[in-house]
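Retro notes
What went well: the complex prediction finally ran end to end.
Inputs used:
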Amino acid sequence: MKRICVYGKGGIGKSTVVSNMAAAMAMQGLKVAVIGCDPKADSTRNLTKEPVETILNCILKKREQLSIYGFGGVLCMESGGPEPGTGCAGRGIVTALNAIRDRNLLADRDIVIFDVLGDVVCGGFSAPMREKAADQVYLVTTGDYMAMYAANNICKGICRYADTGEVRLSGIIQNCRSSLGDHEIVEEFAKQIGTKVIGKIPMAREISYAEMKHATVLEAFPNHPVSDVFRNLAQNVWINEERTIPKPLGEEQLEKIYQHVLKENSLSL
Amino acid sequence: MGNEREIENFKRSMYPWEILHKFGLNGKIGGSITVVGEMHHAIAVIHGPKGCCFFYRLSAHRRYPYYDLESSDMEREEVLFGGAAQLENRIREIYMAEKPELIFIIHSPVSDVLHEDIEGVALRLKREGIPAVDVKSGCFSHREKDFGSRRMAELAESPAEKRENVVVDFKGCGLTEAMNTLVDEVMVSCPRKSKTFNLEVLLMKGEVYQALPEMLAFLKKFGIQLNCMIPNDPLEKLREAPAADLNIVSRMNWANHMKDCFGTDYLHYRSANRYYGWKGVCLLYRDIFQKMHMDESAFAKLDKMENEYLDQIAEERAFLSQCRVHIMCRDVKTAVQAIHLYAGDFQMNVGRLYLFLTEEDYIEQEIASDVETKIFERIRKTAEIYGVQMKLCRTLDDITDDPDFMTAEVLVNTNDFRFERLGLPVIPSVLLDVSMSYESFLRAARKLVDWMKGKRLHNMLWLNKLGTKEFEYPLYQDEMTLLSRKLWNEMWYE
Amino acid sequence: MRKTDGCKLFGAYQALAGIKDCIILFHSVVGCHFGTLGLHLNHCPVEIHQASTLMGNKEVIFGGAEAIRQALETVLRESKIRTICLISGCISELIEDDLDAICREYEERLRLIVIHAPGFEGGITEGYEDALLSLSCFLEPKLGTQKWDGRRINVFGLGTDDYCARGDWKQIQNLLGEQVILNPCPPFCSVEDVKGLAQADLTLVFGRGKKLAEYLQKNFGILYEVLPYPYGFSGMKELWKILEQYLECDYSGARQEAEAALKRELLMFYPYMESLYYSNFAVYAEDGRLNGLIRFLEEELGMRKVLAKPLHEPLSMQELDASKAVILFATSYERKMARSRDLPLIRVGYPVLDRVCSSTDTMIGVGGTVTLVKEIINQTLELWSGKDGALL
C-alpha cells in the first residue's frame, strides 16, 4: 500500500488537489482512501457531496461506521475536531488516526492520502508522519513567498522525523494560481531543498465550478484538459518512488530565490 | 522458613486502597511505574512537569515511596518549544550517574497532548548505547468507564454450574503498556525449553503470593520448571522469556501481545470464576498440565496427590461440617464462589446466603437493571444446589427480621466487622482469591477451624464505634466528603 | 539528583484543601486528583473535599467546559455547597479552556474561585502563594462600628497535608495564649472565616503566604512579618518577641514557663542528648522550615549543620555522603537514601506519607520540641546495627 500525506499552507488548494487526484486514481482502477486531517472536516466534500460524520463524532457517539465511499469508490474519512477556539485539534487527529489503525480500516486500499491542515503547527499535526501512517510527503504550494515559507517549514518537520522514521519528501505539487505565476521560483525551491516538482495545476475556472457543485473536476468536467492534468498527476504520484530527506532553506536562501522577481519588477527588499 | 510471606502480606495490606478507590483512580503513569518498580536495575523517567513525578514516587500499590523515578521536568519553555531535547539530556545524565540496565520513558498527559516524539528520543539514545525504551502509554486511553458494567453483563450470561473464565478485555492502567514494552524491547526469540513456564508476579499479594513457592515446588515434582518471573527477574532472564512453553499470567493483554510476537501460549490464572477453592486448584493444575501436554501418568499422579492432600484435612472438614453458619456477601461477583467454597469445599452447614447490597453497592458494582435478575438468579440456583436459601437485603433490618438469622453460630465470608452489631460473630473471608496451591487450600481450612474455635463478639471493638452513620463507610463524616464521593461517581461513571 | 518538589497544583491544594465549606474541583486529568488524594489520606481521611472533572481524550479534543458544567450541576443538585475552588491543571491550561466564561455562566448560583496551576509553570510554593492570594476576593474591610474583641493575628504558611499541621496549628493557638487571638486562617478555616482575615492586626508568614500578606498590608494596612517555622524554644521566643513588638503584649511569663517545662522534660533525655552535641546533620526541607530547624538544632541541641537544601533543589547521594551528616531531616521521599546509609531520618516537610499523625501531634511548642528531640533519639536507637566489636 502506498501511503502519502499532503501538506501545505492553509487555503493553498490541498483538498482540491487531493480530491481530484484521488478521483483520478480511482478512475484508473486503484482502491483509494482519503483521510482529511482538519477540524473543518471539508477535505473529502468534493468526493462525498454531503458533509460526512467525522471520526471523532463517531467515536463520541460510539458509532462503528467511520467512513463512507465517495465518488469512484474512494473511501473517505474526516478526523474532525473541536469548534474553533476550543480544545486541541492536534490531539483529535492523533485520536482519529489511532481509531483507523485499531479498526484496520485501510487494509484493502492500494493508496491512502492524508490531507493535513495548513501547517505542522504542533505535534498532533505531525501525526500522519510520526505514527507511521504515511511515508511519502507531498507539498502543495504556489509561488507566493508565504506559501513557500510554509512549505519550507514543513520540510523542517520532515527532517525531524526522517531521522528516526521512514518518512521522506517525494515532491512538490505546484498550484499555479499565484499572481506571480512564476514556475521558476517553485522549480528553484524544489531544486534547492533536494526534490522535484511532480505536477502543476493550472488556473482553471472549471475547478471552481466543480467545487461549487461539491464535485471533482473529473466528475463534473471529465473531458476538460484540467482533468487530464489531474490524471497525469495521479499517475506520477502513483509511480513516484523518490524519497528524499529535504534540506530546508534558511530565510536568506529563501529570499534569494525571489531576488530576480523583485529585480524584474524593479522592486527591492 | 518462617512466616516471612505472611508478614510481608500484612505490611502490604497497610495501605488505604479502599478509600482511595472510593474517590479516585490512578492515572496510567501509576501502572507503568509499578511495573518498573518491580524490576531490577531499571529506572523510569516521566516526560512531563515535575508534579507527575512528585506524586508517582509513591508507588500506587505499595505503602512505601517509589524512589527511582525521574522527571524531565517540563516547564513553560518545553511546553512551548517541545521538550524532547531536555528529555534526551536528562536521560543521558541519569545514565551516566546510575548506569541502569533499562530506562523506561513514560509519557505524561502533557507530553501526550503535545504529541512529543518520545519514540525518536529512545531511538537516538539507543544509537548512543543508552538502553532507553518508550512506553507507549496513550495517557488518555484510560481504562474504559464501562468496564465494570460489561464484566457484570458477561458474568450474568455465564452459567453458574460451569467454571468458565469470564473474560473481559479492557485497557489497562498503564501496566499493560509497560509489560508490552518488555515484550517488544527486551525479549528475544530463543529456542524453546520444554516443560518450562513464565509466571507473571506483578503486584502479587495475599494468598497467591503466599502460595507461590508451594506452586513452584509442586510443579517441579512433575518436571515443570519456572523459566522466569515477569517482571521481577533480572533482564538477562527476561530476555529469554520466549523460551518458555507457557505463560501463566494474571493479565491477558500483554500475554496476548507476547503470543502474537513469540507464539507463547498462556494461561490466565486470575480468573475469578474458575480457579477458586479446592476444585479451583485442581482445575488450575489440570489446565497447566494440558497446556504442557503432560501424559496420562502425570494426571494419574495428580489424582493420587490430590487425595492425599484431602486426607490431611479430613479432621478439619469433619469439624467444619458441624458448624452452622450464614454466608454474608456484599459482592455479587463472588457470591457463587462463596457458596461453593463454604457449603461445598469446606462442607459447612450453611443456613442462609445474605446478599446485602446497599444503594451505593449497586452503583459501585455497576449492577444495571437489565442484568440484575440474571445475576441474582445465578446466585440463587447455586445456593439451591446446597439447599441454601438466598436472601437479598437492602437494609440491616432485612437481615435481622429473618427469624432464622440467629440460628447460626457465625457469619462467614465477610471482612465487614460491622455485622457483629447484629449479634453474631464474624469470620473473615478465606480463599475468595485464586487458589494457587493445594497447601493454600489446606491452610485456609485450618485457619477457618482455628477462627471458628476462637469465635467471639468484640463488644469493645473501636472500629465498630467509629463513624456517625449506621452503615455508611465510616469516613463519610460530613456533607463535603459525601459530595466528593458523589462527584466521583457522577464524573467517572457518567 | 532528585528534587522533592511538587508542582503548582499540589501547592494550590495545600493552601485550600482544608477550607471547610468549599470543595476543590480539579479541572485536570485523573492523576492530579488521585495524587493529591494519595498524599492527603495520611493526614485527614475524614475530610475529603475534592473532586475532578477527569479530563480525558474527549475533553482534550473538544474542550473541557462541558465536564466542568457537569460537575457544577452535580454540586448544585446534590449539596448546599456554593463555593468551589476550581484548580486548573496542565491540560486545561494547554488547551486554554475558557474558565472565565464558566465563572460568568455560574456567577449567580455559585462562587467559583479559579486558580491557574499548571505543573509546568511553577512549584509548590508558587501554587500555594497564588491560591492563597485568590482568596482575597472574599476579604471584607474592618468595620468602624464593629465591636473589637482584642488583638488578632493571621498565620500563613501551613499546608493542609503537612506532617502534624493540625497539631501545629493548635500549638500556635496555645503559644498565643489569651493575649492574642489567632484568626482562623487557610487551610484550617471556613469561607466565612476568610472574610475575617482583613480584620487582623498583624500577619505572620511562616515561609510562605507572602503574596496575600502583602495584599493585606497594601489594601487593609495590616503589617506582616516573615519568619521561619517556629521550631524549638528559639522559635517560640521569636514568635513572642514579634507579638510583643507589634501588639504590645507581654510573654515573659510564657517564656519562663516554657523554659521550665522544657528543662523538666528534656532532662529525661539528657544522656542521649549529650551525643547530639557537635553531631553533623543534613536538612532537606521547604524554605520556611529550613532555617527554623537549623536554628533549633544548632542553637538548642548544639548540632552542626553540614548540608542544608530547599526541596526545589536536587539532592544527591554523593552530596549527602560528602557532607558526612549522621542524621537527615527530610521528607518520606528521602527514606531510601537514608536507609542505604543507615542514616536516621526525621520526617519534616511535605510529603510525609509513611507516618500517620493525629490532630494532637505537633512538632512545635513545648510538646512538639520534646517530640522532636525524642524522635531524633528514637530513630537513632532504632537503627542500632546490632553488630559487635571494632571490626564493624
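What we learned: The CA atoms of residues 97 and 131 of chain A lie 8 Å apart.
What to try next: split runs per interface for comparison.
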